[in-house]
Design a protein that fits this description.
Number of helices: 3
Number of domains: 1
Radius of gyration: 23 Å
Distance between the termini: 75 Å
Order of helices and strands: HHH
Shape: rod-shaped
Structural class: mainly alpha
Strand content: under 5%
Length: 87
């Protein structure tokens, strides 16, 4: 193997490593939001089934899921409190 080819491979490997380091945190945040959103959807379905008989429910749509994904459990409770007081 020629030395110039070896240098090119080393540069490509270093650039790939740097790219992975830069993308690691945003990907971690994206997957955290995705998991929290899925947990929020399941939570909405369960709580809507329980509280639906009392006419307290929150519609599951993109905005409510993103709200819960960003705010977590306080956002989840806040949406149900808002639904309770708006009825």
């Amino acid at each position: 193997m020629e030395s110039s080819t070896l240098i090119v491979y080393m540069i490509v490997i270093c650039l790939a490593f740097i790219l992975v380091l830069f993308l690691a945190k945003p990907l971690k945040n994206f997957f955290r939001l995705a998991v929290r959103g899925l947990v929020g959807i399941v939570g909405f379905m369960i709580v809507n089934a329980v509280l639906g008989s009392f006419d307290i429910y929150v519609g599951v749509n993109l905005y409510t899921v993103l709200f819960v994904a960003f705010l977590g459990f306080p956002g989840f409770v806040g949406l149900y409190l808002l639904s309770f007081f708006m009825n």
